[in-house]
Each structure stands twice: as structure tokens, then as C-alpha cells.
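Sample log: LysR family transcriptional regulator.
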Amino acid sequence: MRRSIPSTQALACFEAAARHESYTRAAQELALTQGAVSRQVMALEEFVGVPLFRRTRHGVALTPAGETYARKVRHWLLGMERDTLDLMAHQGSGGTIKLAAVPTFATRWLMPRLPQLAQQHPDITVHIDVQTRPFLFADTGFDAALYAGTPEQVRNWPGIEALHLMDEDVVPVCSPRLLDRATQRAPGRAWQPLPPQALADLPLLQQSTRPQGWVQWFQSVNVDAPRAMDGPRYELFSMLAVAAAQGMGVALIPPMLVESELARGELVIASAQPLRGERGYYLITPAQQAPSAVLQTFSDWLKTMAQQAMG
């Protein structure tokens, strides 16, 4: 069946002309004549049957239809260029995964483990872009997504399959210096986690996206804490981790997101009372198609990493 796809040359000329709103500058970029660019755009307009440009006193400007089409063509051309470079780099072996991911989980949990993936599967390359909200895979170039959300949010994401990796349990963490000041610990003496009641008297760090976090934690340990909503608010777990490590207060953070700080002693568990979060971490893939061999390998590896992290 003959496909209704215009020539790549016509699309490249249109995209350049749309970006510059000038046939002349598009011709300079593409090393063509102005007339050649004009003819390619005219051929494209004839092919689609829709005017893409209108003449102005200063040259050309996109029509509303042209603006919409230009965004889609630009995305398609960039994807084709990226896929071609990937093919050239791998010389036909292995493959790449274009992954959308929530930033803190990607930076603090996934990326420290990617060297293990490279050792086990050196022919797989993972490209990561930040994406925090559900999206339609058909409108993007992503192969999969690492998503943090509630089970209801995952169920309401259309056209996907979800692999649950782990829950977002949080525990109170803080700088050991803060515990030293709070407990007046003698130098050289090992510190001990505090009872939940003691945390109610310490400065608390809040997460703006979970304003009830400390309220819920104190309720779970049956502690009356009138100041549970006091304290500076930060949006990301990574921000909370830095503030806590600097001794600014106690933060509720999933331990898996502060593994490095805990290992280096920059943060310690202030009270070993976890709170089961409403959210979990999921690998999201399109439901309409079978996963490629590369994506299946990555999915299996990710599931193994999550199981090891959860003990």
C-alpha cells in the first residue's frame, strides 16, 4: 500500500523555513538555493492540500495549520536523526531506550545503578529525559517511563502497561549534627535514633507536594505534634536531602533516594518508624505493542534491581 508520506527533502525544507520564517535563511542552512526551498515547500503544500505559509511584507509567515504541522515535523525529524545516530553508533547490534523519568528517582536511584546495566548489557544505551506527568506514547518518542504515582493515577493512564517496582515508604532523616545538638550527645559516643515524641520538638522540613506528610507520620506513631506543618517547604526529595544534610531540620524521605548520604554519614535515620506512602514507582510501557528485545531486557534488569533494593 502506498503511504501518504511526503519526501524527506520537502519536510526538511519546510521545517527550516518554518523555524526561520524565511526561505532565504532556510536555503543558507541547507546549502540550497532560495528557489529550491520555495519549490520544495510548494510541492509539500500541494501534497497536503493545505497552505502552510502566507506571504508578508517581510517574507513568509506560518499559517495556523503550518504552525501545528511544523511542530510535528520537527519532532519527527529530530527522532529520525536520533535513531539514525543510534544505529550508526551501535552498528546494528544492541539498541537504545528513550526513557521518560521523574527527576529525583532517576538521578538518585537509577543512574547510580546504570553502570551495572552497562557491564551486563554493554550494547544497551539508555537516554533519559525528565517527565513527571502521564502522556500519550503516540505523541512522543519515548519507549518507556519511570513514573511515581498512586495506583489510581496509574490505572487512569490510558493505553499503558505498568510494572510496579517499589512503594515510596518514607522515614525521618537528618544530619547527625542535628541529633548531637538535640540530644547533647557526648563526643565519641554512638548516636541512637530518637523516640517519635522527640522529633516533634525538632525543626521539620516539609515537602510542598505532600503538605500532610509530617501530620500523617506523627499520627501513625500516636504522637501529638502541634507544629507538624511548620517549617520550610521544598518541592523535590533532592532538595529536602540537601537541606537535611546541612542540618536545617528533619525530612521525610525514602531511604532509597538518600543511599549515598546515608553511606557517607551525612544523613542518619532519626527514627526508625517508616510511613507507607500513597505513591509507588512504576515502569510504564505502551500496551498496544509487544516490547522490543532491548526494552524487555531493560525491564527484567530494572525489576531485579528493585527487588534487590527492597531486600
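Observation: The two ends are 53 Å apart (CA to CA).
Observation: The first strand starts at residue 53 and ends at 56.
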